[in-house]
């Protein structure tokens, strides 16, 4: 309803109060402020992390309507930007500089206030630690439609490996860690498996998914990219979508349709980046209102990383690495001429965020590639880094040591092999994996 505030001020104000106290409004919008926080779970002593707070309010966001304080612990929390005053949605960016004490926690509280007095807050806990990554979860994809994927464990200190610590009985696509849990996306069956960091299953999300590929999360909400019906996924009108998951109930509650087949997802600064691999587009989802912004990149965007300056980089199957500025979603530098191949494209970034590694080479099959390339983001120099007679299928970088982990599929003829290299490209270790190792998660151990 469009009303003139000048002519109907009293009625309008009364309606605002009524809607702010009701359970739902006619448009399905929030009746109390909704506060979402996107922040790393760990930070090294005396170092900085970046936090984004997004809010939706029933009225209009008050001036200075998003604030944050350090409730407990040591460190400094500073708001660096605020957008959305006098609108129903807002965003604020913060920097948190941790204290010098190791093995402590910081409790950060973020609050939102709108112009009719409605308020809400959200607390997050950040662990201050030197990381001490002691074990690696190896994601073993398994053979296509054979339901023999698994998650393995590699103990860094002992050098021991348990390739099938968690038998997934499915094809594993991707997994991430979020709020001290592992969210693992699988096909055959289509599901997201919720595990603890000891690889003990806690829950399964298996409704509302159709050929799921990747997972991202902000606060208590998850986002799953889905190809949809496989018969339409490669056509001009795919049935692809993002499934929206309430992580408190582990249920899919809604979806957002996509115009092209998706692949990788990234949660960064309050937005979900979606690589629409079937096009030349990256879609950016605003979780506050579930709207999409499309930006044009090189053809075949597939996988994302974030560099040390907070810039987003997307690897495209057409052989390009494209920079995206999250402050205004503009496309920056493009590094092209890369020898990556579609469906085996994988990339990772080191702990300091200045060196990207990707898989490439001459093997154009689905079974793996032959070479690890490095991209120095300071000089934009692309160089062969590790070369051997590999069938490389997975890559990861330990953010603490900068050791590079590689998964060799052995052409899917048998179980795979894991390799560990130092930052100079020297092989440190070799260990057995399950079938088709396609990725690695780095788990912080007890002190």
Helix and strand content put the structural class at: mainly beta
CATH class term of the largest domain? Mainly Beta
Radius of gyration: 23 Å
Cα-to-Cα separation, first versus last residue: 59 Å
Oligomer: single chain
The rough form would be described as globular
Largest sheet, if any? 7 strands, antiparallel
Count helical runs: 2
Order of strands across the biggest sheet?
A: 28-29-30-31-32-33-34
CATH H-level superfamily title of the largest domain: YVTN repeat-like/Quinoprotein amine dehydrogenase
User: What's the mean pLDDT score?
Assistant: 89
| Uncertain stretches | 1-28
Named at the architecture level, the CATH assignment of the largest domain is: 7 Propeller
Return the CATH topology of the largest domain: Methylamine Dehydrogenase, Chain H
What is the number of strand segments?
A: 35
Task: Give the SSE layout.
Blueprint: H1 5-21, E1 34-38, E2 42-43, E3 48-56, E4 61-72, E5 75-83, E6 89-98, E7 104-114, E8 119-128, E9 133-140, E10 150-155, E11 161-167, E12 171-178, E13 181-187, E14 191-196, E15 201-205, E16 212-218, E17 221-226, H2 230-233, E18 241-246, E19 251-257, E20 265-268, E21 271-276, E22 281-286, E23 291-296, E24 301-306, E25 312-316, E26 320-325, E27 330-336, E28 347-349, E29 355-360, E30 369-376, E31 381-397, E32 404-408, E33 417-421, E34 427-432, E35 437-444
């Amino acid at each position: 309803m469009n009303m003139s505030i000048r002519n109907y001020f009293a009625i309008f104000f009364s309606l605002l109060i009524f809607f702010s106290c009701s359970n739902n409004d006619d448009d399905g919008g929030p009746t109390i402020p909704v506060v979402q926080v996107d922040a790393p779970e760990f930070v090294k002593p005396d170092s900085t992390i970046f936090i984004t707070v997004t809010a939706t309010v029933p009225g209009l966001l008050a001036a200075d309507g998003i604030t944050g304080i350090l409730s407990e612990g040591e460190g400094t929390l500073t708001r660096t930007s605020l957008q959305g005053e006098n609108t129903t949605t807002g965003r604020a960016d913060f920097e948190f500089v941790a204290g010098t004490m190791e093995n402590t926690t910081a409790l950060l509280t973020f609050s939102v206030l709108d112009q009719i007095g409605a308020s809400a807050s959200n607390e997050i806990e950040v662990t201050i630690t030197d990381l001490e990554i002691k074990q690696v979860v190896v994601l073993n994809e398994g053979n296509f439609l054979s339901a023999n994927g698994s998650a393995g464990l590699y103990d860094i200190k002992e050098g021991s490996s348990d390739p099938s610590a968690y038998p997934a009985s499915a094809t594993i696509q991707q997994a991430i860690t979020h709020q001290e849990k592992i969210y693992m996306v699988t096909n055959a069956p289509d599901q997201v498996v919720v595990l603890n960091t000891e690889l003990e299953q806690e829950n399964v999300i298996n409704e509302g998914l159709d050929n799921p590929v990747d997972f991202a999360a902000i606060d208590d909400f998850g986002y799953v990219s889905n190809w949809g019906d496989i018969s339409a996924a490669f056509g001009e009108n795919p049935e692809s979508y993002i499934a929206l998951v309430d992580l408190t109930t582990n249920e899919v509650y809604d979806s957002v349709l996509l115009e092209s087949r998706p692949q990788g997802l990234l949660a960064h600064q309050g937005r979900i980046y979606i690589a629409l691999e079937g096009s030349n587009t990256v879609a950016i989802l605003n979780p506050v209102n579930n709207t999409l912004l499309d930006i044009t990149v090189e053809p075949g965007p597939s996988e994302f990383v974030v560099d040390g300056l907070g810039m987003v980089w997307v690897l495209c199957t057409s052989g390009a690495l494209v920079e995206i500025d999250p402050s205004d979603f503009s496309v920056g530098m493009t590094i092209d001429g890369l020898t990556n191949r579609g469906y085996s494209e994988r990339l990772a970034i080191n702990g300091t965020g200045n060196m990207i590694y990707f898989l490439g080479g001459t093997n154009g099959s689905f079974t793996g590639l032959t070479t690890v390339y490095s991209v120095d983001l300071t000089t934009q120099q692309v160089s062969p880094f590790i070369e051997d007679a590999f069938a490389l299928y997975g890559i990861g970088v330990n953010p603490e040591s900068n050791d590079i982990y590689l998964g060799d599929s052995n052409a899917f003829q048998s179980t795979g092999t894991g390799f560990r290299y130092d930052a100079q490209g020297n092989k440190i270790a070799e260990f057995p994996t399950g079938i088709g190792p396609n990725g690695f998660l780095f788990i912080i151990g007890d002190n």
